[in-house]
Amino acid sequence: MLNFEYQNPTKILFGKGQIEKIGQEIPSDARILIVYGGGSVIANGTMDMVRKALAGRNISEFGGIEPNPDYDTLMRAVELVKKARINYLLAVGGGSVIDGTKFISAASCWELGDPWEILRHQGKGIRTVIPFGCVLTLPATGSEMNHHAVISRKTRQITLPSASGSSEGSGVVSIHSRVDNEKLAFSSEKVFPQFAVLDPVVTFTLPKVQIANGITDAFCHVMEQYLTYPVHANLQDRFAESILLTLLDDGVKSYRQPENYDSRANLMWCATMALNGLIGAGVPQDWSTHAIGHELTALFGLAHAQTLAIVLPATMHVRRHEKKEKLLQYADRVWGIRGENPDEVIQQAISKTVAFFESIGLHSKLSAYNISADQLSEVSAKLLKHGMTGIGEHSSVTLEVCEEILNTAL
Ligand code: NZQ
Ligand code: ZN
Predict the structure, then answer these.
(1) What ipTM does the predicted assembly reach?
(2) For the domain that residue 309 is a member of, what is the CATH number?
(3) Spatial separation of the C-alpha atoms in residues 86 and 97, rounded to whole Å
(4) Domain of residue 262, residue span
């Protein structure tokens, strides 16, 4: 087992009715900003429960955080935080709202210039933040109990007038600045939520596609921390396999029976445990599937989980020699596949993984989204721009390997 340090400060309030308790978790004199997304939490009654639990408190609200939370939207929230002297944030929503809240929390206190630098430097330099808690409504990302966030920024052509103030057409050149479609992650110990409420009931209104995305995301979080090479971290391996097996069982039940409380509760806890640091402590980690996936989202607009269902099987295939021992362990312990011929066993395990994603409506090929070979160089260019030229547990996933993975996924 590798050396590790592990601390997770987030308090979990799990189960039916736990939203009632949030008032006890937030200082009574706090000026609170409730942050939410496109309105699902208003439609399904979660916001009413939150407002009721915080009745009589100093509350403002900021809605409109998009899936793949957008930098410009978040910066409008930062303005509000400063103007209203907010000193506590409460995220009510899925991973996008929680990630967005993490960014608002850090950017509101950022004193080192342009807050986009938080993303460009992966969170280094964050010193102080506004404390926050969350009410999770979508089991998927693990953001509710971790210190990561992923923020997007759409292409913008910014035209600044030249120093003389003349406009275009006058013969004086204006200054153009361009921000390309970006999706970047940051991490900081400062952005762990103080508490997270996980009430499976508020997730009953999720469309099936979001449940499938959540199962896939959690599954791939486990795989990024499990499918590497053995380091005799036996407990972590068993933890990881137990999450995968529970996702195959309760995850699928929850997909088929949206109001089955027990299955949804198991799916919800799986998703949290898949990325709260526990199973990744003391083991090598990959994360190349996510790195490639984020570029696919930024460039082509695929949902996060859609990218993972495409990249993971292709990664398993292209890197099958490097990952051979763990692939065989995965085949045996998760799928019960054994045999004389390791190549065949691995191939069957990959096929099972693809069939699982497809059984919950995910596609495993880029062509399903009309992405063709001639567009793949854009992905490589982005990975190069972001310094992702040697990723994975052995830093062996070069741009050439990424291209091979994407070509395999065509
Ligand atoms: O915007 P609203 O109206 O709230 O609707 C959302 C959104 O349209 C809807 N939804 C959420 N809860 C609902 C609901 N609809 C009905 N009933 C409910 N109870 O679901 C849609 C998707 O929500 P979103 O928050 O975008 O999904 P998810 O939780 O999958 O988050 C995805 C984001 O998290 C990032 C992804 O890259 C992506 O930006 N990730 C964050 C990670 C982290 N912080 O550790 C790790 C992950 O790998 C991932 O990268
Ligand atoms: Zn993910």
Answers:
(1) 0.99
(2) 1.20.1090.10
(3) 17
(4) 207-408
